[in-house]
Design brief:
The chain is α/β, with parallel strands linked by helices. 44% of the residues lie in helices and 19% in strands. It has two domains: 191 residues, Hexokinase, domain 1, CATH 3.40.367.20; 202 residues, 2-Layer Sandwich (Nucleotidyltransferase, domain 5). It has a six-stranded mixed sheet, sandwiched between helices. Strands 2, 3, 4, 5, 6 and 9 form a six-stranded mixed sheet that branches. A hairpin with a 3-residue loop joins strand 2 and strand 3. Bound molecules: alpha-D-glucopyranose. The site of alpha-D-glucopyranose has 17 residues, from helix 6 and strand 11.
């Protein structure tokens, strides 16, 4: 074992500690005390599965964004979504916010034209906006700070739905009603839950990382809601409950008044950092923030590995299978490249060890936090839980999902059989469309 490996080890004791600390931090965040977890109320609850209609979603969470049209048929069924992908060039994510929103609206116009959707018909749209947003209602919220390399000006502190609506108006798209604003984790949870009522956690492990779950409204401090919207939420809740009673629907998931909480777990900071983590953080555009994200997500895993490899090799880096130029440059070694090398027969054994320790640590930290959420909802693990997970790291990094399951087993023993982890590909957009239907 190379000594550096020790820096990255997350032992059986560590996963328990992380899980315990994460739970404590969740509780602090919920009750409005100082916490690295924002625990943002989203004004969204799980769907009933009966939602119907045609909806559009715009899903923005990174430089690639998607627009999709979804037909919900009720009874948990939906048609195959029609999707178009667009790319936000670097200039647009670091330039003026108005220009960025104009590009989103113009792309939507292209999508509607392509799908022959008339500009006369009223269209309900779910807006997935995957950044820390302080939600003030189901279709309103202000951006707290950018993450994942976005820096567009004039957006932090503003209501992103208003900015989007203004851009839609500039494109003449007056028929679009932005009915819901959702984080990608919330979309992922809702999309999976539409077909599987046991799904109660949504997780993203991609460029960024985050999770959400439903919480009893009575456990969320009043101070976390804006009063006007709190009343709105309550009356919406009552209306839903009345409708459920009238229709005789009594699905277990709607028994209690609940609201999905966007944890923003990327900012969790009760983790033991090593010299490479500190180096990466110091050189980042958001030092001291998104500590867990910098140890777990795809935006940073390649860079953590690169820093370790550069250190091992000193000045004269020479590893088979790796381009020296990539490793000499900050962020020159991408997480996708890591995925390829991890299974490549020709890769240097030292490189493989480094990649394994960096990715294993990520998987074990993520699993510890998932375990904390489950324990918060179901302390004795008596029920069945599905965790819907999306994101390039979880989907594509060799062995990542297996490592998550292994850690869950270490934490829960045989009872881990009650937890199902499910890849929920592209759920975030679909979920936003469903939320637009509920709203
Ligand atoms: C970042 C964002 C968060 C999002 C996650 C996954 O952590 O702050 O809102 O859910 O990335 O895309």
């Amino acid at each position: 074992m190379i000594p550096i490996e020790k820096y990255f080890q997350v032992s059986a004791v560590d996963i328990r500690r992380i899980s315990r600390d994460f739970r404590a931090e969740m509780e602090k965040g919920l009750t409005g005390r100082k916490s690295s977890l924002k625990m943002i109320p989203t004004y969204v609850r799980r769907p009933t599965g009966d939602e119907k209609g045609v909806f559009i979603a715009l899903d923005l969470g990174g430089t690639n964004f998607r627009i999709l049209k979804l037909v919900l048929k009720g009874a948990g069924r939906s048609g195959e979504p029609r999707t178009m992908k667009f790319v936000l060039k670097k200039g647009l994510i670091t330039g003026s916010g108005v220009k960025m929103f104009d590009f989103l609206a113009a792309s939507l116009k292209t999508f509607l034209k392509k799908n022959k959707m008339s500009s006369e018909d009223r269209i309900r749209l779910g807006f997935t906006f995957s950044f820390p947003v302080n939600q003030t209602g189901i279709a309103s919220g202000t951006l707290v700070c950018w993450t994942k390399g976005f820096e567009a000006s004039g957006v932090v502190g503003k209501d992103v739905v208003i900015l989007f609506r203004e851009a839609l108006a500039r494109q003449g798209l007056f028929n679009i009603e932005v009915a819901a604003l959702a984080n990608d984790t919330v979309g992922t949870l809702v999309a999976k839950n539409y077909e599987d009522p046991h799904c109660d956690i949504g997780v993203i492990i991609g460029t960024g990382t985050n999770a959400c779950y439903p919480e009893k409204v009575t456990n969320i401090a009043e101070s976390k809601f804006q009063i006007r919207h709190c009343e709105e939420a309550r009356s919406a809740d009552e209306a839903i409950q009345k409708k459920e009673i009238a229709s005789g629907a009594s699905r277990p998931r709607n028994d209690e008044s609940e609201m999905i909480i966007n944890i923003e777990w990327g900012n969790f900071n009760k983790l033991r950092r090593n010299v490479y983590d500190r180096r990466l953080d110091k050189a980042s555009d958001n030092p001291g923030r998104q500590i867990l994200e910098k140890m777990v997500s795809g935006m940073y895993l390649g860079e953590v590995a690169r820093l370790v490899l550069a250190d091992i090799a000193g000045g004269g880096m020479r590893f088979t299978g790796i381009d020296r130029k990539h490793v000499a440059k900050s962020y020159g070694f991408r997480t996708e490249e890591m995925s390829g090398l991890a299974v490549s027969k020709s890769a240097d054994p030292v490189v493989k060890v480094v990649l394994d320790m960096v990715s294993s640590r990520a998987a074990r930290i993520a699993a510890s936090c998932m375990a904390a959420i489950i324990t918060r909802m179901d302390p004795r693990l008596t029920k069945t839980h599905t965790i819907a997970i999306d994101g390039s790291v979880y989907e594509k990094y060799p062995g990542f999902s297996m490592k998550v399951n292994k850690a869950l087993k270490e934490l829960f023993g045989k009872r881990a059989a009650r937890i199902k982890t499910a890849l929920a590909k592209d759920g975030s957009g679909k979920g936003a469309a469903i939320i637009a239907a509920v709203a």
